[in-house]
Amino acid sequence: MNCPRCNALVAFSKNRCDNCGQDLRNYWKIVSLSNIYYNKALGQAKIRDLTGAVASLKQSLQFNKLNTNARNLLGLIYYEEGEIVSALSEWVISKHYQESNNDADMYINEVQANPNKLEMHSQTIRKYNSALFSAQHGDEDMAIIQLKKVVNLNPKFIRANQLLALLYMMSDKKDGKTRALKILNNIIKVDITNTTTLRYLQELSDVRIKPETSSIKNEQKAANARKTLPRVEESDQYKTITPYKEEKPSILPFVNVLVGIIIGLALMYCLIIPHMKSNEADNANQDFKKYSENQAAAESDVVTLKNQNETLQARADELERELEELKSDGNGTSDAMLETYDNIFAAVNSYINDDKEKAAQKLKAIDIDSLSGSAAKKVCKKVAEMTFKDESVRLYIQGRDAYNGENEYADAQDYDKAKELLEEALEYDPDNTDAMYFLGRTYQQMSKPKKAIEYYEKIINDYPASARVQEASSRLRELGG
Questions:
Q1: 436: confidence class by pLDDT, cuts 50, 70, 90
Q2: From 81, 139, 382, 446, which residue has the greatest number of CB atoms within 10 Å?
């Protein structure tokens, strides 16, 4: 264990730190209590008492928030209950407190390494939230439809199952309570002490699930079949076995085969071939539908761009009128203001002519907040919104190429140029985590570890959902940060 004051390694049997002299008796008691609650939660989780395990783990973390084993187990329980966001949150916090030799790395990688599984979890969360909104606004039927999809995607999502059971209990359908009871009986196996599930089951204590009639009939048939089986007498064991006699060849099997072939051909002609033609027609219709949708989308994009250009042109005209008013003012207009307006006009014209790069560069030279005219601010913000992110991505790609020595920087890694381009990319879009990550790597290669650590920590702390978090954490460990 480490001393909480100086972080020096101290044996658990010692009551005082040899390095700083800190009294550790109360600290050891707190750590021991945290471990006791963790062990209790571990036992509860093994018998599916997940609600009790969560309460014990939260108590453990109240005593010692650095208990990463307890935090990782809490994340696993949330994951088992379908709470993927809560699970990832606990694992990320655990990773923050213990960066090396932490099982949270494996759990996070397992979730993020499978994009399909991650997308499935995202869909369940979106559909559950949509169903909850529908239920809160009185649209129970739509909520039930959406919750069925959620439960199919993740059968262990306890909250979704509970909400679906509640909606069935509230519905006027004849078999609503029976369906609710089936759902609750399934999820009680996931968490046997969930108070909400137990309360709902108490409400349905008078409901009985009737066995399916088909299964009863099948059992009766099997019993009858067993009764009607021929009884073998003991004397049958000793009867003479009838010797085998070779049957005379018959034409009947060949006739049966021929008739079967004819029937098969007839079925193919009457059923399969029309079905194949129908599928071909359906595929052709689907292709035509997709083509029509693509055409409509393209036309919609054209109309949208045309409207945007018309809006920008109108604002540019308004801006020109504003400039004329400033010029006609008795106090005159300064050269700096005229230059600012020239840059605005140049940015608007460049964007209208589909030169986003030049538009962004012109606009970057303008201090938008210092503009006095409302029309000028609107135009600048609109053009910045439509160009700055694209320009940031373009500069990031160039900076990455300069770092790797690729494309126009082939066989000549230029870290100074990479630093310049990546910093400029962040000026256009401060949230560009790709540019942050490669800027950190550039500083690392330039033997400036403090600057590199600054950018890696910014990605981890400020953008925990970014795809660069794992890479930044790995680089941070390399630098001992």
A1: very high
A2: 81
Predicted local distance difference test score (pLDDT) of residue 52:
92
Identify the three-state secondary structure at position 171.
Answer: coil
pLDDT in tens, 343-356: 776 777 777 676 77
Tokens 């049958």 label which residue? 236
* Confidence label for 245 from pLDDT (cuts 50, 70 and 90): very low
Burial string for 265-295 (b: 16+ CB within 10 Å, else e) reads eeeeeeeeeeeeeeeeeeeeeeeeeeeeeee
What residues pair up with 9 in beta bridges, in sequence order?
A: 2
Dist. CA 80–CA 57, nearest whole Å: 15
Distance from CA of residue 339 to its chain's centroid? Answer: 47
Token pair of 447 as six digits = 């033997």
Coil vs helix vs strand at 23: strand
Token readout for 308 is: 């945007």
Stretch (H or E) spanning 60: helix 50-63
Q: What is the 3-state secondary structure (H, E, C) of 273-303?
A: HHHHHHHHHHHHHHHHHHHHHHHHHHHHHHH
Give helix 115-136 / helix 104-112 axis angle, nearest 10°. 80
Residue 101, sorted as left (phi over 0), alpha (psi -120 to 50) or beta, turns out to be: left
Q: Is the pTM of this model over 0.90?
A: no
- Asked whether the beta carbons of 108 and 88 are under 8 A apart, the reply is yes
Answer for the pair 315, 375: CB distance below 8 angstroms, yes or no. yes
3-state secondary structure at position 9: strand
- Return d(Cα 112, Cα 91) in angstroms, integer: 12
